Amino acid sequence: MLKIGLFSKLSRISIRMLRYYDENGLLTPGEVDPATGYRYYHESQLMEAERLLALREMGFGVEAMGAILRAYQDPEALGQFLRVRREELRAELEKTRQRLALLETTLERVGKDGIIMEYNVTLKELPRRQVASLREVIPSYWQEGELWGRMMTETAGQNLQIAEPCYSMAIFHDKEYREENVDVEVQMAVKGNYRDTESVRFFTAEPQTIASVTVQGSYQQMGRVNQVLASWIAGNGYEINGPMFNIYHVGPAQTADESQWVTEVCMPVEKK
Fold first, then answer.
1. 61 and 130 both lie in a single domain
2. What is the per-residue pLDDT for 254?
3. For helices 75-109 and 222-235, what crossing angle results, to 10°?
């Protein structure tokens, strides 16, 4: 039998962690002196400790470690646990690579034009969601509010339940900038099912990978924001694969104070 201190040294697991594993049923002492409470371990338990160390190094949590140890003699079950963890690590690695690419791009541009210091680009995925949508060609971008007004009017009798987050957005479908007759779609996420109206359609919007910049203030800065986004996308091995859109977190509907507006400028992207 080995005292806990010696077992700790031989197993390379701290006494604190040995007690933690004991509390969670992962590595129980072979004996506990009822008079002193001292813990003693069998030499054979060093193998169990080695398995715990290996699983911890792979990033498994306590709950998963317990399940794996219970299935350790079943090669098929053990293999399944390991394959799932492998996919989790691959996903984490890809996220790390994306963060590293963003960091490298930022470092390259800091001090050159100052743009990155002003606006930060985020790569993320919009989830699948049920939406209310109204798309129409309108005289100018500044008349987008009329689309929102019509959406509210036409759906007033259906008591729409707005989802959280609501993803209130305007999608700009034209492939070029137009000074008039612009193709704009306004859209927001809803909960439940509703019937289409004369102008409003309800459907499921599929997930999208986007590069986005969130800005506070008036819309006059959008040209500079678009420059930042386009530069980041090109510099990080992506390409735009859909119409750009704005998500209005705080907009004219909430406040007339332009300085309080919060807009997320988004461009759908995919790897080249």
1. no
2. 87
3. 130
Please state whether 111 falls in left (phi above 0), alpha (psi between -120 and 50) or beta.
left
pLDDT tens, position by position, 71-81? 888 888 889 99
Residue 190 resides in a domain: yes
Tell which of 53, 70, 87 closes a domain. 70
**Among 244, 243, 261, CA closest to 252:** 261
| Cα distance between residue 231 and residue 213, in whole Å | 12
175, part of any domain: yes
Residue 44 domain-assigned (yes or no): yes
At residue 142, the pLDDT reads 87
User: Under DSSP, is residue 28 helix (H, G, I), strand (E, B) or coil?
Assistant: coil
CATH number, domain with residue 248: 3.20.80.10
CA nearest neighbour of 133 among 197, 90, 211: 197
Q: Which of 170, 91, 116, 104 is nearest to 138 (CA)?
A: 170
Residue type (1 letter), 263:
T
Residue 75 lies in a domain: no
> Percentage of residues in the chain with pLDDT exceeding 90?
59
Lowest mean pLDDT among 144-148, 216-220, 237-241: 216-220
114-118, 148-152, 208-212, 219-223: segment of lowest average pLDDT: 114-118
Domain that holds residue 30: 2-70
